[in-house]
Specification:
The chain is of the alpha+beta class. It has a domain of about 325 residues: Beta-galactosidase, Chain A, domain 5, CATH 2.70.98. It is built from 18 helices and 41 strands. A hairpin with a 2-residue loop joins strand 5 and strand 6. The radius of gyration is 27 Å and the shape is elongated.
Length: about 725
């Protein structure tokens, strides 16, 4: 059974591992993130099951150009003539070695901790990811050696990826290593290679016969740990999750050699790994300090790595996050710590807008493979940042995206390899407007709102009314129409071989609910400012939208809203969750009877323990499992798959039509309870995944951690407990 514990001021997940089947352990993952979009992630037994798993994935140009630097390590203890492996790898249907057999406990707080016991020896392996540079520390704390007949030997062999984190590596990759000063520099044997720098040392004096006699074996030595050059390729590591997704699933990994320490007393050994964008070989001076950005060099622990200082920095950061949440509720604190993993700093390149190269706060849509997306950021922002008390960061996200607007549109996403913005979304701009008003209500920061956000809001409204990219404009009835048969501009954007799986061009229900809400927000804003003329302008637009919305979308026969009206006037009456936004948003174009009917229809046909299905199971197009190759997964993505982020608008709509009564709050608490348990018990521990299968038992799928899933659960939790 999984339990929540408290260490100092930080909640941690703790899992007893005795007799736990390895297959169960491989379904549970962990994630650590930094402010650069980098991360470390694996399963709770340390066996990588995805190409995206690794001990250090860094960003060469935050948040772009992510590189899987250090994939894993082979860890071996030789004790009284016996060999004990700590590692677990999968090769062609078998595990070798089987280190999972020696694990007693898994824990997660500011880092990840795996406790081992065997033959009288006790040790804890910890992983710490530094917050503001792409550096990871692996700590091996041998607290008890038991009865030993001769010095214990610890062997640590690193496996290097040094590849694009979307790709896989093969043995023809030209990798090389050089010992420089006190560590190992690893690069591609080509110009303009990035660098992985490894340094391994003991934190306390090493007591053994070699040290006492001052005899250093052949190789290099650093603080009691010897390095032996022994270059090897290891072939065909199997990544079972990639195999399940119909992707290439085997990888070759290179090792430059191994670190070795001999001791007859308890010892703590640390392996530091740092990834840097070292463009010129002559600039690789061979120290951790060389890879530290200039604005971090004042931090002593980065110049001379100190694990205690790193741990203190991580603990201090989490304490600040908990304090900002202003809550003693441990469940809410856990949610806020989950939210923190998506907050990152985007560093503009040389072509940065207006010459501003300062890091700006942004929201990563999901780990492991998403960067910052406009739609995701602004759906998630009220929960991730406003509810968590992180108001300055919310301001930074809003102003950053506002500055990037073009033709009255907020970027849908930024490129994975550069700062290029893409605008292929009709709703990102409307969600920006909603988030901007939520920021105003939460902060009363009218100066930022009126000077930096309102001009962009009005620009969006004008461009959407008059016309902008992708045929986005208002029709004669005042409703927004967008796109054509070749575009996918709403959040249901899956395509395969150029064919849209869910064709929702024309007038989509949630787009026009957002449009109406935006116009009403502006009407209210200018009314309070006694700008009668401007208020009347937006009021007239809103009234027209309300009248047209009810005539076009309300389906009296079915008792719910049509999903989309195509340009030729044909009606898509599919029962989908998109209509819930017409009730949940602050201003609804529907009457009370219609709102209640929508909530009832969604609850009856789409609600699951983990969110809303994207299509009713009664529909012939329904796909109950998100599995198989790319085409099979694309066909299921919005055709029955459950999205947990939709629990936020559903709970809000449900409470709204029930007048936020105590009884309705108790019922809503039941709706979110399975997701609250999932947060600390299933899949990526301490996180919420992107999607679940539509069919029971609703297996978690997609990204292991999704920003809007967490953000909307935070909002729902607050609504239930307010």
């Amino acid at each position: 059974m999984l339990t929540l514990q408290k260490a100092k001021s930080t909640e941690i997940v703790s899992i007893p591992m005795d007799n736990r089947p390895v297959e169960d352990s491989l379904s549970k993952e962990w994630l650590l993130t930094n402010e650069r979009g980098g991360y470390a992630s694996s399963t709770i037994v340390g066996c990588n099951t995805r190409r995206y798993h690794g001990l250090l994935i860094g960003s060469l140009n935050p948040l772009a150009n992510r590189i899987m630097g250090l994939a894993n390590c082979l860890e071996m203890v030789i004790l009284n003539g016996k060999v004990f492996n700590l590692s677990t790898f999968e090769f062609n249907g078998k595990f070798a070695p089987e280190g999972f057999k020696h694990i007693k406990q898994f824990r997660r707080d500011t880092g990840v901790h795996i406790d081992y016991q065997f033959d009288g020896l006790e040790l804890t392996k910890s992983v710490y990811l530094l917050r503001d540079t792409d550096m990871v520390a692996l700590v091996y704390d041998f607290t008890r050696l038991g009865r030993i007949e001769k010095p214990m030997e610890f062997v640590l062999r690193p496996f290097v990826g040094l590849r694009d984190f979307h790709a896989l590596q093969k043995s023809y990759t030209p990798l090389c290593s050089t010992w420089l000063d006190d560590g190992l520099s690893i690069r591609h044997d080509v110009p303009d290679s990035c660098e992985l720098f490894l340094r391994c040392h003991s934190l306390n004096p090493v007591r053994n016969s070699i040290a006492r006699n001052n005899m250093i074996p052949e190789g290099k030595i650093s603080n009691g740990v010897n390095f032996r050059k022994d270059q090897e390729w290891w072939f065909n590591f199997v990544y079972r999750n990639d195999k399940e997704r119909g992707q290439d699933f085997t990888e070759d990994l290179w090792s430059p050699g191994f670190f070795k320490c001999c001791t007859d007393s308890p010892v703590k050994i640390v392996l530091w790994a740092h990834l840097s964008d070292r463009r010129k070989p002559e600039s690789a001076v061979g120290s951790i300090e060389a890879g530290v950005p200039k604005h971090h060099k004042e931090k002593e622990y980065l110049r001379t790595p100190n694990i205690e200082a790193v741990c203190e920095d991580l603990h201090k950061h989490q304490s600040i996050m908990i304090a900002a949440a202003k809550s003693k509720d441990e469940k809410f604190r856990t949610l806020c710590l989950a939210a923190d993993q998506f907050i990152a700093k985007r560093i503009p390149g040389p072509e940065g807008r207006e010459g501003n190269h300062e890091p700006r706060t942004t929201v990563l849509a999901g780990f492991p493979w998403f960067a910052d997306w406009g739609r995701d950021a602004f759906i998630a922002l009220p929960g991730l940042l406003l509810s968590a008390g992180r108001l300055d960061e919310a301001k930074s996200v809003l102003t950053t995206f506002a500055a990037a607007a073009d033709e009255g549109m907020i970027p849908n996403r930024f490129d994975d390899y550069c700062d290029t913005a893409y605008f292929n979304s009709v709703d990102a701009s409307l969600w920006f407007i909603n988030a901007a008003f939520q920021y105003l209500y939460a902060t009363d920061d009218s100066k930022t709102f009126t000077q930096q956000l309102l001009p962009t809001i009005r620009w969006i409204i004008d461009c959407y009314h008059d016309g902008t990219r992708f045929d986005i404009c208002t029709d004669a009835d005042g409703l927004i129409t967008a796109g054509n048969e070749e575009t996918q501009l709403t959040w249901m954007d899956a395509k395969h071989d150029g064919v849209a799986i869910t064709a929702r061009y024309g007038k989509a229900v949630e787009i026009n609910a957002l449009w109406y809400n935006s116009l009403c927000r502006l009407t209210e804003f200018y009314t309070k400012r006694r700008d009668t003329e401007t208020a009347e302008h937006y009021h007239a637009m809103a009234d027209k939208v309300k009248s047209s919305f009810c005539k076009l979308f309300w389906n009296e026969t079915s008792g719910y809203l049509n999903d989309c009206i195509l340009p030729d006037g044909s009606v898509d009456a599919t029962l989908r969750p998109n209509q819930i936004f017409a009730v949940s948003l602050g201003f609804s174009p529907l009457g009370r009877r219609e709102q209640t009917s929508v909530v009832d229809a969604v609850q009856k046909n789409l609600l699951t323990p983990y969110g809303l299905r994207t299509l009713s199971a009664a529909d012939s197009r329904y796909r109950g499992k998100y599995a198989g190759g790319q085409q099979q997964r694309d066909e299921a993505y919005h055709q029955g798959t459950v999205w947990p982020y939709l629990i936020g608008p559903f709970v809000e709509a449900y409470l709204k039509v029930n007048d936020f009564s105590r009884k309705s709050k108790r019922k809503a608490a039941e709706f979110i309870e399975p997701l609250m348990r999932h947060l600390t018990e299933d899949a990526c521990l301490g996180q919420l995944c992107e999607i679940f299968d539509g069919d029971a038992p609703h297996k978690p799928r997609g990204c292991i951690a999704q920003a809007w899933s967490v953000g909307e659960l935070i909002r729902a939790y607050q609504l239930v407990n307010s």
